[in-house]
Amino acid sequence: MHAWGKSIGSFVFAGALAGVVAFSLPSSVQAHRLTQPQTEKNVTLPGTREVQQPSGVRRPVRPASEGTTRVVPRDDASKGSLQDRIQAILHPVEEPADPVQPQFQVPKTVSAYDDAILGTPLATEEQCVKYLLAYNPAPNISCTPQQLVSFYYQEGAREGIRPDVAFAQALKETGFFRYGGDVVPSQNNYCGLGTTGGGVRGAYFATPQLGVRAHIQHLLAYASTREPQEAVVDPRYQLVRGTYGDTTLGAWEDLNGRWAVPGNSYGQSILSMFRAILSE
Predict the structure, then answer these.
(1) Would you say residue 170 lies in a domain?
(2) Cα angle: 234, vertex 235, 240; to 5 degrees
(3) Taking 90 as the threshold, does the pLDDT of residue 79 lie above it?
(4) Mean pLDDT value of segment 48-59
(5) Calpha distance 105→183 (Å, rounded)
(6) Whether residue 259 sits in one domain with residue 133
(7) Are residues 170 and 83 in the same domain?
């Protein structure tokens, strides 16, 4: 009887010991997780700090005053919050336009007394705007003075036409954008294209930039046999090219009696205005 009771006690003790061991060991799933690398991306949220956990995994932890820790999965972090995405749609960030790079060699303008039609600008856009506003603080145009000048520099660079001198020509043709002749402001016609006097208004252009493009293309028709980089919007481009063929005009003074009739000092007056722009 004593031996039988001793055996029962040993059996109970062994069972209890096995239960303790089983309870203290991780499950097979837990063991697998401990031995596998982490697949979740932990991202530090704004206003959090990182602490090193004993397991070696870096976790973002908010200061005690800000609440509890939150771990953000990789996909959620890459997409951003719903509010951020809504703001991106409502207020998109506009990338600045790249400067126009001509696909041909343009002679560099180095002097205010260089009278070539083709070349690079000497005056800045700011100087052009200041000169215009000094003579007409309220130009009658359908965009801002800064935008109009910018169009001249974009389109001039595209075709290799000096934009600052072309803008001076527009000032001369429009009376500093006061008009008062045959052309009216709504035409966006800044150089008298197609007007022959006697109430003939000439060409209309849908936007200020197209009006500037037509002006630059008309200058190109005189100064070069090269085709424009953009589709032709100048209604008289082919007429000029068909008339001059292989002949080109190199200087602004060569426009005398051609762009304006009689225009004995037409080109000289444009260059004089251009030099005045340089003094701003």
Answers:
(1) yes
(2) 85
(3) no
(4) 42
(5) 35
(6) yes
(7) no
176 and 266 inside one domain: yes
Q: Helical H runs in 113-254?
A: 125-135, 145-159, 163-174, 208-223, 237-244
Backbone angles phi, psi at 125, to 5 degrees: -60, -40
Number of domains making up the chain: 2
Same domain, 179 and 56: no
Give, in order, the Cα–Cα distances in Å from 41 to each of 37, 45, 72: 11, 12, 7
* Res 196: pLDDT: 81
Q: Considering the chain, what percentage of its residues have pLDDT values greater than 70?
A: 66
Contact 128, 149 (CB under 8 A): yes
* DSSP structural state of residue 71: P
Residue that has been written with the tokens 């009376």 in this structure: 175
Under DSSP, is residue 268 helix (H, G, I), strand (E, B) or coil? Answer: helix
Q: Any bridge partners for residue 256, and if so which? A: 260
**Phi and psi for 122 in degrees, rounded to 5?**
-105, -40
Beta strands in the chain (DSSP E): 49-52, 58-61
| Domain final residue pick, 48, 79, 94 | 94
Give the separation between CA 117 and CA 167, rounded to whole angstroms.
12
Q: What is the pLDDT of residue 274?
A: 98
User: What is the domain extent for residue 268?
Assistant: 125-278
Looking up residue 167, the CATH number of its domain turns out to be 1.10.530.10
pLDDT over threshold 60, residue 21 = no
Q: Is residue 159 part of a domain?
A: yes
Question: Does residue 13 fall inside a structural domain?
Answer: no
Question: Do 64 and 150 fall into the same domain?
Answer: no
The answer to whether residue 17 is domain-embedded is no
- Grouping H, G, I as helix, E, B as strand and the rest as coil, residue 116 is strand
| Amino acid letter, residue 12 | V
Distance in angstroms between the alpha carbons of the first and the last residue of the chain = 122
Dist CA 211 CA 64 (whole Å):
64
